[in-house]
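Board notes (copied after class):
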Amino acid sequence: MSISAVNSTLVRESGHIDGRWCQAESGATIAVYNPASGEHLGQVPDMGETETRAAIDAASRALPAWSALNPKERARLLRNWFDLIIEHKEDLARLMTQEQGKPLFETRGEVLYGASYVEWYAEEAKRAYGKVFSAPTGDKRALSIQQPIGVVAAITPWNFPNAMITRKIAPALAAGCTMVVKPSEETPFSALALMALAEQAGIPAGVINMVTSSQAAVVGRVMTDDARVRKLSFTGSTRVGKLLYGQSADTVKKLSLELGGNAPFIVFDDADLDAAVTGAVISKFRNAGQTCVCANRILVQDGIYDAFMARFKAEVEKFVIGNGLDAATTLGPVINKAAIDKIAGMVDAALTEGAELVTGGTRHEAGELFFAPTILGNVSQQMAIASQEIFGPVAPVIRFGDEAEAVAIANDTPYGLAAYFYTENHSRIWRVAEQLEYGMIGINEGILSNEIAPFGGVKESGLGREGSAEGLADYMETKYLCMGGIR
């Protein structure tokens, strides 16, 4: 084990099923590496079908008692978990930087962001309200109640290994559901540390079960085939989301799918240019561009294109690239070799198609998985890089003429997760916001996600919402009660 400066009680090399830390029955393991240095950090069990079934068994056994627990008691336990996360925030941040790569200032922010969902749903646990309706006749009464949907399976990604866990577990537990979670094999230690803190918080055995595995197809198939799993929550690629969607049809599961994006970032000629540049840098390069909501295409109006590009280039060239544990670092590595090879290939293809290299464009000397922050100018919507999710520190910039053209370019994609635009015209704000085909819109703002807002997309970017009261409702079923014989 090579994880440094982290409380040893949080570093677990085991899965967690039915209140027990355990290994894979096969004895197989997954090696975990630091993407910044290539250092071997440790290993976790490579679990499969047997362990996933055992986790579903445990969640099913725990469900009756957990769902019957008074919501105030569920809220108390979630609050305990939140308090422990805050107490160990620095350990969790350092752990995440070592296995995921993002700089410490970002991982510290993610821990607080992830904790905010636990706090929010500790409060929302007591607010699963029913309704009373006007009955059609005087001898009847009509009402509805909200009940937990049941056992929930969750599959989470590597790019936000803390927040994507809490954003799913917290509302599920608040609603009275039990969970089986498969974290990414790239970043399992952050998930297991949260599991250790949940155990310390007093959350009962079987309520949260964590299966570490590199066998995503096997684990996913067990989750989707088992009728006891009534909901599946997945964050990841659209391709895999579609597979899980199809596999869930036989048991008619409820799904929350947060899938791929192709976010446009539109800068109109009446925008506050300094604010737009700041927003573009934050949105595009956070986590080295490895976020589903980051600006994937930057659209700039003709009249300010040159001025925007000059300021944007100057800001992007200020990034300090290196190991995230170094205090000076502001941009870390990408997650693995497949990712950096894909990014390099996309940049090369765009240059071949006629894009202009403004800055960057090459792998960086900091290490094997570092790519220089890159701006590509004069990109057209017809280039491959304008239609594919980049997931790296590369900003393609597209020039446009008028508002109608910007909206048309922005909507020319099967995805609809997040979009951003900058303008000082209040009429344009309403027009553009209503025309953009996206689930979330940042208006004069480059960061839009928080625990009080419904996070999710439209079209091929997914189903359902996370965060807000809607996030709690996604883990509940509405039951209608019709009462007759009222005299």
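Comment from the instructor: The mean pLDDT is 97. Residues 104-124 form the longest helix (21 residues).
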